[in-house]
Amino acid sequence: MTDEAVAATQGSVPPGAMLKAARESRELTQRETADRLNWMPGYVAIIERDDYSALRRPSFARGYVKAFGRLVELDEKILMTAFESLENRGETVVDKSSKDTHWAFHRQKTGLGVVVGLGSLIVLIAALWWWQGNM
């Protein structure tokens, strides 16, 4: 086991630092990594600083870390152990309430728009039908 792997199992090396070191050892830029993973620009930097609450969907952080680890060929078990220890120490702020509530509210507004649009269409059709009947 390498020194990095031993440190990770003890919880002293966060997953972001492990991923960054592995990416740099493969001479990949953040942009190249994001392109290979089909991620939005900036996600690599967010993952590398372990700032999972900055993701659009922080609840997917574990999957992002796994995918990044597979790309740079890190041992998934060691990487996930480091991720879980970070989570258990409370350093990983995956604030599901703030981000997921935002998305739920966004979906709700979209649904309201559809209802208002359909209601307006029904009123318009009724007005046209009434106008045709009076002519």
| The top level CATH class name of the largest domain | Mainly Alpha
Radius of gyration: 24 Å
Instruction: Name the helix and strand elements from N-terminus to C-terminus, one letter apiece.
Output: HHHHHHH
Class by helix and strand content?
Answer: mainly alpha
Q: State the CATH architecture of the largest domain.
A: Orthogonal Bundle
Give a brief rundown of this model.
The protein has helices spanning 3-10, 15-25, 30-37, 43-48, 61-71, 76-88, 96-133. It is an all-alpha fold and 135 residues long. The chain folds into 2 domains: 3-88, lambda repressor-like DNA-binding domains (434 Repressor (Amino-terminal Domain)), CATH 1.10.260.40; 95-135.
Q: Which helices and strands appear, and what pairs or packs with what?
A:
Blueprint: H1 3-10, H2 15-25, H3 30-37, H4 43-48, H5 61-71, H6 76-88, H7 96-133
What does this structure look like?
By secondary structure, the protein is mostly helical. It folds into two domains: 3-88, lambda repressor-like DNA-binding domains (434 Repressor (Amino-terminal Domain)); 95-135. The chain is 70% helix and 0% strand. It contains seven helices and no strands. The protein has helices at residues 3-10, 15-25, 30-37, 43-48, 61-71, 76-88, 96-133.
Features:
135 residues; mainly alpha; 434 Repressor (Amino-terminal Domain); elongated
